[in-house]
Structure formats: structure tokens, C-alpha cells
Specification:
By secondary structure, the protein is mainly α. It is built from 14 helices and no strands.
Length: 301
């Protein structure tokens, strides 16, 4: 017996100790794969730069984006004084593009956040309880999916009225069913796992099972889809503003700025030239990061 205990102790002593900071969680593995992708890291740094510029846009902008008027340089092109030129009302385009980034990014992010929050809740309920909960929620999602997103957003804004707040609500509404279906699918898979049955067997309530066991298992999918959805929401919000249903003049929103630039396209094309690339830059950066998130998460799964 003593010999057996001695051998067991020798084996235990020979085993390497694993420190807590050396344990690789799924998030560690995800980050390790992501940072190996140099293009993805470059896109992520670019997106972070856009976010920082958007947050501090009103301090970075050399002029007031709404109340500054240079009547001596109407429709003038780029210069040392006005890097992106001046529009037909004498407003500095560079300042308006910076502040417009703040408004457009905020509209896209808030819309997706609202849609993700509501959609996640509905998806958890539909996937966990099934039955009439599942049928009711999924039929509502089917109805929303039956309409093109931008058409549904136009209908919502037409009912609620124009304004950036109503645009956020409209874009959030057509984001809800996508998140609901995603979370429902994950929930249906997770609720069949043995650790869920173990939690139920020890008397865990439905709320505890949903919030402490199922929801954490869906977070990675939600984050990836959230990132992919931001670019679409930015374009949708800007499209509504371009149609005159979103931000109203003199608010410097990218879609509204492009709409105003149409009238002076021939005599002052620089207004549209410098107002438009914001869409391409932020949407491309966010979509690029989102796709790499998807690849990293997919390879991990």
C-alpha cells in the first residue's frame, strides 16, 4: 500500500502544473487565430481609428459643421483652408464629413444593438420553450423577412416620421428577426447538451439555465453576426437619409450630404466626391473584420 501511494505521489509530482493564466479558453483560441491574420488586424485597426475619429469628431473638426459659413468661397474646391472644399452654403465639407461619421456610425451601431438585444431575447424564448412560443415568434419573423429590409424601414419611418431616432428604430426592427433565428438555432442545439440536463436535475430555474448556461454559449455567434450587421445598418440608415426620411438639414449625415450634393454635381462635384467615400471605408472595414471573425469562430467550432 505504501509502495502504491509512493508511486502515485511520484506521478503527481512529475505532472506539470498548469497555471490559471495558461489555460486556453475559446476566446483565447479565437484571439490567437485572429491576430495571425495580418489583413484582419489592419482592418480592425482601421475600424478602431474610424471609431476614435467619430467619437472626437466635433473636437477634431476645424470648423463648426452646422453653423460655420464661408460666403466668400461658395462651392470652392479643396484648399489649404478647406481640405475637402466648401459646399453651396459655404460650409466646410471636411468638418461635416467628420461629424457625419459620428452620426452615421452611431445610428448603425445603436440600431444593431437594439435589434440584437430584442432578437436575442426572442430567440432564447423560442428555442428554449418551443411550442406556441416558437410558432408565434417565428411566424412574426417570417412576416418581417417577407419584406426587403429597406422597404420595411421606409414603411416604419413613413409611420413614425422622419428623424435620425426613427431611422434607428426602423433599422433595428428589420434586424430583430435575423438575430432571433440565429439565437433560436443555437438554443435548440445547446438545450440538448448534457450540462443543461445536469443544471435542470439540480433544480436550476429556467431563468438560470437561460442566462448562465445557454446565453454564454451563443455570445460568440452573436458578436460575429453583430459585426457583420453593422455595415448593412450604416448603409440602410444613410439610404433613408438620402431619400429625405432620416437626418434633416443642416445635420451633417452622410446620406443627407449626398442628397444635398446632387443639385451641384456639375459645378461642384467635390462635394459628392468627398462625402461618398465614408460609406465605402467604414462598411468595407467593418465587413472585412466581420468576415475574419466568422472564419476564426468557424474554424474554432
Amino acid at each position: 500500500m505504501r509502495l502504491f501511494n509512493w508511486r502515485r505521489q511520484a506521478v503527481l509530482n512529475a505532472m506539470p502544473l498548469v497555471k490559471p493564466d495558461q489555460v486556453r479558453t475559446p476566446w483565447h483560441e479565437f484571439w490567437r487565430r485572429f491576430r495571425r491574420q495580418h489583413m484582419a488586424m489592419t482592418a480592425a485597426l482601421f475600424v478602431i481609428l474610424l471609431i476614435v475619429v467619430a467619437i472626437f469628431a466635433r473636437w477634431i473638426a476645424p470648423y463648426d459643421a452646422e453653423n460655420y459659413f464661408d460666403y466668400d468661397n461658395l462651392n470652392n474646391g479643396p484648399s489649404l483652408q478647406h481640405w475637402f472644399g466648401v459646399d453651396s452654403l459655404g460650409r466646410d465639407i471636411f468638418s461635416r464629413v467628420l461629424v457625419g461619421a459620428q452620426i452615421s456610425l452611431a445610428a448603425g451601431v445603436f440600431a444593431v444593438f437594439i435589434g440584437a438585444a430584442i432578437g436575442t431575447l426572442l430567440g432564447l424564448l423560442a428555442g428554449y420553450y418551443e411550442g406556441w412560443w416558437d410558432r408565434l415568434i417565428m411566424r412574426i419573423c417570417d412576416v418581417l423577412f417577407a419584406f426587403p429590409g429597406i422597404l420595411l424601414a421606409i414603411a416604419v419611418v413613413a409611420v413614425l416620421g422622419s428623424g435620425i431616432a426613427n431611422v434607428i428604430i426602423a433599422v433595428a426592427i428589420f434586424s430583430i428577426p435575423a438575430f432571433a433565428r440565429l439565437v433560436r438555432g443555437n438554443t435548440l442545439v445547446l438545450k440538448q447538451q448534457t450540462f443543461i440536463e445536469s443544471a435542470r436535475s439540480i433544480g436550476a430555474s429556467d431563468m438560470t439555465v437561460l442566462l448562465r448556461h445557454i446565453l454564454p454559449g451563443t455570445v460568440s455567434s452573436i458578436v460575429v453576426f453583430f459585426t457583420m450587421r453593422i455595415g448593412t445598418s450604416i448603409i440602410s440608415a444613410a439610404s433613408l437619409s438620402f431619400l429625405g426620411l432620416g437626418a434633416q438639414p443642416p445635420t451633417p449625415e452622410w446620406g443627407a450630404m449626398l442628397n444635398e450634393a446632387r443639385a451641384d454635381m456639375v459645378i461642384a462635384p467635390h462635394v459628392a466626391v468627398f462625402s461618398g467615400p465614408g460609406y465605402f471605408s467604414d462598411r468595407t472595414g467593418v465587413q472585412f473584420v466581420g468576415r475574419w471573425f466568422t472564419r476564426c469562430a468557424g474554424s474554432e467550432n
